[in-house]
Amino acid sequence: MKKFISIISIILTVLLILTGCSEPQTTQSDTKEETENTSEPVETPKDNSDKEEFNSQILFNGSSTLAPVIASISTNFIEEFVSWDKVDPSFPEKNIAIYVSAGGSGQGVKSVIDKTSDFGMVARTVKDSEKEQLKELKEFKVGIDALTLGVNPNNPILSVKDDLTKDEIIKIFSGEYKTWKDLDISLPDKEIIVVTRDIGGGAHEVFQSKIMGDVEVKADAIQAPSMGALVTKIIENEYAIGYASFGVVNQNEGKIKTLKVDGVEATKENIVDGSYIIQRPLIAIINGELTAPQQSFIDYMMGDEGLAVVESMGFVPVK
Predict the structure, then answer these.
(1) Among the listed residues 312, 319, 290, the one whose alpha carbon sits nearest the alpha carbon of residue 55
(2) d(CA 47, CA 57)
(3) 3-state secondary structure of 13
(4) Per-residue pLDDT tens for 227-250?
(5) Which of 151, 157, 311, 173 shows the shortest CA–CA distance to 241?
(6) End-to-end distance of the chain based on CA atoms, in angstroms?
(7) Which of 18, 34, 132, 270 pairs with 231 at a CA distance of 20 to 30 A?
(8) What's the pLDDT at 52?
(9) Domain spans of the chain, in order of start
């Protein structure tokens, strides 16, 4: 039975990653009772304040960058324990079901506010306006991601320079520089293909605040629905540039090259010490007290097993 569960969990996690998290995916354990078999996420999770009835399901929704990480941690947790009584003898013998759906950081926060999920996955800081609606907000920071300036390995800029100033980045993404020749006279007169995340993604807000300021990204930039899709666009077009996730770039080693920003390279050390400025936290949020099973999973996620997954997927774990 455990072997069967492992196969199902791994298949679901792989599907989530391959789709770039553009569609909702779930990770759950096999069940022993028909009443626990379901392919649809529960729309309204049980209020966390209700301690009387044990809820075997945990729902995550939000960031497409963080979703594959949580899905992988969930798979490992399910494979190791299978049912909740194996996590804690005081828990009932109910199979573990953890659902992970991607829809962007903003959607993750909204799902917690609307109580359509237990946890929101957020790849940015939580806004003050959001905190006003989350009076009992709790944040669990599992890692740090950075937004690198990614280009195709065949992009001619790599033969000329490996560094962009903040001013050059603004001119590229605003559309002031229309061709690569505008950036450097020795580069070809080819259109700069700008790729960004959609406005609902946490990456868009981070890049806007850290780099663009009051200057808007040009209207005809390609808006990718997920970070995986953004990186794919860069891989497919040698004249493209986009702010690619540090973790996703590491997952696509050799397929994408990154440029320094104001002379600082996006390395683990530079991200940790803050010298690389385009970075963001990877956090799970909840509003209210955690139930006992939720606390058990969070302890696992924030422990050595969970942080090892964060690091293995190319991000910087918080230790």
Answers:
(1) 290
(2) 12
(3) helix
(4) 889 999 999 999 999 999 999 999
(5) 151
(6) 34
(7) 270
(8) 57
(9) 2-145+281-317, 146-279
Amino acid symbol at 257: K
Q: Please determine whether the domains at 2-145+281-317 and 146-279 fall in the same fold group of CATH.
A: yes
Q: How many CB atoms lie within 10 A of CB 160?
A: 13
d(CA 240, CA 233): 8
Which tokens belong to 191? 């259109």
Burial profile 219-251: b = 16 or more Cβ within 10 angstroms, e = fewer = eebbbbbbbbbbbbbbbebebbbbbbbbbbbbb
The C-alpha atoms of residue 96 and residue 228 are separated, in whole angstroms, by 28
Closest CA to 154 of 92, 221, 234: 234
Q: What is the pLDDT of residues 28-66, one digit of tens each?
A: 433 333 333 333 443 434 444 444 589 999 999 999 899
CB-neighbour burial class of residue 73 (10 A; exposed 0-12, middle 13-18, buried 19+): buried
Question: Tokens 């989350």 belong to which residue?
Answer: 134
Instruction: Give the span between the Cα atoms of 283 and 126, in whole angstroms.
Output: 9
Question: Which pLDDT does position 240 carry in this prediction?
Answer: 97
**Spans of the chain, pLDDT less than 50:** 1-51
In which residue are the tokens 């385009």 written?
A: 278
pLDDT tens-digit map of 275-287: 999 999 999 999 9
CATH number of 2-145+281-317: 3.40.190.10
Q: Give the pLDDT confidence score for residue 7 in this predicted structure.
A: 36
Euclidean distance between CA atoms 12 and 71, whole angstroms = 9
CATH number for region 146-279 = 3.40.190.10
CB 94 within 8 A of CB 262: no
- According to the model, what pLDDT value does residue 54 have? 93
Task: Give the pLDDT confidence score for residue 46 in this predicted structure.
Answer: 43
Question: What is the model's pLDDT at position 53?
Answer: 85
Biggest CA pair distance of the chain = 70
Q: What pTM value is reported for the model?
A: 0.80
| 3-state percent helix, strand, coil for the chain, nearest multiple of 5 | 40, 20, 40
| Residues comprising the chain, all counted | 319
